[in-house]
Write a structure and sequence with these properties.
single chain, 137 residues, mainly alpha, three-stranded antiparallel sheet, 7 helices, 12% strand
């Protein structure tokens, strides 16, 4: 089978995209809000963010879902920002998270999306972009 240029450089062909999976826990309401009833939006989120997402429901005694994400580092950071924002108690962050969620459900993410997320994270959390990228949160 001959591979075209897209498949040769696809994110899943790069071993480093499977290093350090993002793992977080969300409650049932947030799970439904992000991924939809019966995971209606899961596939579109994966496709549009170039990631693979595994959901393990009822993973904890409190009924949370464990979310594991593998993929390019910028996409994983963007998804973590979206998940954190959707679950925030602050109206500004929650509204931003809902906009991010709608975007990833409906269209592929771009470098501009990743850059914008990094700028907001850095500003909101008081970190410079290099510190944020090193994971010193």
């Amino acid at each position: 089978m001959e591979m075209d240029g897209f498949n040769e450089n696809a994110w899943w062909t790069l071993p480093e995209n499977f290093d350090a999976p993002l793992v977080t826990f969300i409650d049932e309401a947030q799970d439904q809000q992000i991924f939809g009833h019966e995971d209606l939006h899961l596939r579109s989120i994966e496709l549009h963010s170039n990631t693979l997402i595994q959901l393990e429901r009822w993973f904890t005694a409190s009924g949370q879902t464990r979310v594991t994400v593998v993929g390019p580092p910028r996409a994983k950071r963007w998804l973590m920002d979206m998940i954190w924002s959707v679950g925030s108690q602050e109206a500004y962050h929650q509204a931003r998270g809902e906009e991010m969620l709608e975007r990833v459900q409906n269209q592929p993410l771009t470098n501009a999306d990743f850059d914008a997320s990094l700028r907001v994270q850095s500003h909101s959390w008081g970190l410079s972009p290099p510190d944020r990228m090193k994971g010193t949160t």
